[in-house]
Amino acid sequence: MESNEGVKKIILVVDDEPSILKLLNFILSSTYTLVIKTSGIEAIAWLEEGNDPDLIISDLMMPYFDGSTLIKNLKISGFYRNTPVILLSGADDLEDKVKEMPFKIDRFVEKPFNPTILKSHITQLLS
Which CB contacts under 8 angstroms, 24+ apart, belong to 43-50? Predict the structure, then answer.
């Protein structure tokens, strides 16, 4: 249930692949307000402006400032400790990588992903 009827939940999407961003925009923008950033550095800058997303979807592997570094910084900051995170990745050993992370990932989804499954994860995490 939404507290403000008609107000879309905000999802911060962080990915450097244009095709993934197009797909996420296509499957999610009718239901959610998407804020798209193409690097962890852009995402941190947006968050430091005082923005507060309801959920974060981040790619794991990005140049310069990867998804793992981004999420670690968010969880350490305290402000976003309770913001749910979905990690997207094409890595073969994604499950092992998630287990090694020193912070909690709410969900992880392998690329290529099934849009229905991703939407189901989002609905569960935002309810």
Answer: 43/12, 43/14, 43/70, 44/70, 44/73, 46/12, 47/12, 47/74, 47/79, 47/80
How do residues 64-111 score in pLDDT, each as one tens digit? 788 888 888 888 888 888 999 999 988 777 778 777 777 778 999 999
Q: Give the tokens for residue 29.
A: 């923008």
Shortest CA distance to 91 belongs to which of 121, 117, 68?
A: 68
Distance CA 15, CA 88 (A): 9
pTM confidence score: 0.90
**Residue position matching structure tokens 């430091």:** 48
* CA pair distance 49, 68, nearest whole angstrom: 21
β-pair partners for 10? 33
* Domain 10-126 part of CATH 3.40.50.300: no
Number of CB atoms found within 10 A of residue 45's CB: 12
